[in-house]
User: Fold these one by one.
Assistant:
Number 1:
Amino acid sequence: MKTIEHIAIFTSGGDSPGMNAALYGIVKKAEQSGIRLSGIRKGYEGLIDGDLVPLDAHKLQKMVHRGGTLLKTARSKRFLTLEGRQRALENLQKNEVDALIAIGGDGTFKGLLAFSEICDLPFLGIPGTIDNDLAGTDFTLGFDSAVNTAIENIDKIRDTAEAHNRIFLIEVMGRDCGYIAIHSGLGTGADAILIPESAHDFIQLLEKAGSYDREEAFIVIVSEGDELGAEVAAKKIKEINPDVDLRITKLGHVQRGGNASAFDRMLGIRLGAAAVEALLRGRKNVMAGILNNELSLTPFDRVVKEHQVNDELQGLLKIFGN
Ligand SMILES: Nc1ncnc2c1ncn2[C@@H]1O[C@H](COP(=O)(O)OP(=O)(O)OP(=O)(O)O)[C@@H](O)[C@H]1O
Ligand SMILES: O=P(O)(O)OC[C@H]1O[C@](O)(CO)[C@@H](O)[C@@H]1O
């Protein structure tokens, strides 16, 4: 095994609060171990363009709380091509990089799996996405912050909904995963929660909406990946209860911004330090995560395959959400 002297890091896919904390964890651990670090700007785009920059530990210390990512991020069409990945490899060789740390979501790790077919450097992953849609960790970086942002905004919408006796359908992010919807819906006492993982939730919503008496607020949280979606759900509610006053609000990218929660700051620092440590111990092609509050390393191929809302949460949804 080649000694690791130089590690390059990038953030990729959707940004998430806690990515800067993870960069801080990486920088401090590498400093302690005498490792040289480079940041790659704009995810796989920067890897293809050879956009490597030094990482400033002091600057990161001052922005450990901040959302977004100091290194910027991107969704890269070019990295989907073999030609793009070959250019990325040439840049790593030219800059004498010994190992790579990627902070991103399932797409990012699929990218690393494809890259590992032509590049045998050790890769280490850190789960950075608000969606919480990865196996190998109980929580991804940014999920807790995004849920807190969603909850804060749903609470506000409830005030105006109560004042007007309105039905509100509030769409939250999560791509094809219902975690943000479940956590923000249960945490705000929503009347119904629609998630991609459940087919029964809509039937239950219609039963409730049909008997809604228009004397209070009625809050429905709709995960953006739900098979029906907010517009169709709203149309169906109007069909069975035509006189209701109904509005749709899409929370959108506000959920990705803002300071990281205390939980995400600590998660980022722990996973950042753990990623460097794992590389120095010779681990490769695994994602660092936290399972039952213990650090854990899971191979990329497992991480991208499994991401189900677990049975316990599905059970809670039946009791509270619908
Ligand atoms: N099969 C693949 N082969 C090569 N590269 C890939 C593959 N899948 C994804 N990538 C690369 O990984 C990048 C990041 O993936 P994606 O845009 O899906 O975000 P993500 O990592 O899933 O994060 P988020 O969950 O926040 O959206 C893609 O833009 C693409 O460049
Ligand atoms: O910022 P973009 O590219 O529009 O992506 C939005 C998507 O990214 C996420 O915020 C993170 O994966 C999803 O919840 C959402 O579907």
Number 2:
Amino acid sequence: MTLPFTATLSSQPGQTDDAPAWSAGLAELLASLHQRDGGDPAQAGRIRDWVRKLAAGLAQGHVCLVDEHAPWRNLSSPVLVDAARAADTVAPLVAEDERLYLYRHWQAETQLAQALSALDEAVGDAAPVAAHHLDGLNERQRQAVAMATQRRFSLITGGPGTGKTYTLVRILLALLEQNPTLHVALAAPTGKAAARMYEALSAALAKATGVTDAMRAALPTSASTLHRLLGIQYDRPAQYHAANPLPFDLVIVDEASMIDLRLASQLLAAIDPRRTRLILLGDANQLAAVEAGAVLEEMGRAPRLQAARVALNESQRFGADSGIGRLAAAICAGDSAAVLGFRRQGLDKVRFEDLPGAEALAEALFRGYAPYVDALRGGADTEAVLAAFGRFRVLCALREGTTGVAGLNERLTARLRAALGQEAGAALWFHGRPVMVMQNDYALNVFNGDIGVALRSAAGLEVFFPGRERGISVARLAHVETAFAMTVHKSQGSEFEEVAVVLPGADSQVVSRELLYTGVTRARVRVQVWAGERGLSVAVGRRTERRSGLGGKVIM
Ligand SMILES: Nc1ncnc2c1ncn2[C@@H]1O[C@H](COP(=O)(O)OP(=O)(O)OP(=O)(O)O)[C@@H](O)[C@H]1O
């Protein structure tokens, strides 16, 4: 049977405080199927209740419902199967010990765990890494090089500027020295993250010593999205899978915190443990994927994968005394007192502000876009306009409300149009409208999360994206949103000179330590934090935990 959750699962968790509307429908459906197919009518209410809770959890990124008493253990129901039998018998719900899943999440989690175990078992076929590849690295970086050159699966985590790229270059050079024809693929969950990964790696390679022309020639000339790497289009099955694995010796995936359970299981299925080495890079303290499954974090905690992971911990970007670095560290540590202390005493390059009313907030945030307004007014070329827009961004926890993306975009739009002397009007498109693509469009070659600016050109109003010469007529771009303000979720994988993080009031359930950390660390130079004391302290105090069974399932 087909369950009605495929489309709705992509509703944004962390953005509404309520259980999704579809959870009640799914609960009713399964409760009535239970009765129709001969289940004990007295148990229908329990099924309904569990499914409702499970669905609410899914919308927040949990993979399963957890109850330590496993009340589903001895329940006989046509809509529920025990995990021990789930490989042969398909039912909408799977019970596995204290966890209850929708079938396809149980299947993805189980397949991912098996693939990880198989890959992690295939270790130790490489020669030890030559000592010169370790020169100048700190202890954790050395461990990472040794690990990634020895193992088939490795996980390298670390915050911004901890040297993930720097270390990766050493790993690549060491592996290329052993095998000059190494076939390498670079990928990331979004187009933006892939582009940034490639840029960072190219820059680090340009600075590295001992890179021969042959090595350069063996390296890929771009990084792709994971969807493109795996050949996933729309909702069709991936082109690469267990029976047709990816034709690479080494696959490197950046920004792995953004990978959800389904994509992770598709990626691992496409890795041939006899041939391919997989290196995942990411920041485990960041927000997890919007969809179900905090895969990176789970992998990071799985006891059996301990030898396959290294956490880099010395940031070169944010020195120990940098304001952003100290703030990020205090947020990560859940140290509300320290964060409130910074807020009261002041912190270098960090501006803390109380939340004013809607108009005053928009007015203050609009000042961040002054260089962008100047570029548009002065008739700067497209590249300069895009660069000016890329300097600053407003990042929100919510979509709706005074502090939400939608309202702020409206108010910032009105201010930009006034500043440019445009008539205030209801027109959706205008010269200077920054937009974010919300859906992959393979025909236009634009992807979820790409950001461009609408500019008047000889061909009319066209959207220009960084790194692309030609604009795209606004009429062809259906799934876009104005992008002065964006959610913290959507900002993952991007970086700006300055960001303004806007939190809602203290009673919101959606703000968390991971969200605030992700927002703050999108800034390279300066950050503004718009939140009252209580809101800030609640955010720092709340850790998101994702319920799943992955950690315990990976075995060797
Ligand atoms: N061991 C080291 N010796 C000298 N410089 C280093 C070392 N490790 C990192 N760096 C430098 O620190 C800076 C940050 O490193 P890098 O860009 O690799 O971090 P990153 O973790 O990839 O950051 P991000 O997550 O922001 O992309 C770079 O300028 C890099 O050259």
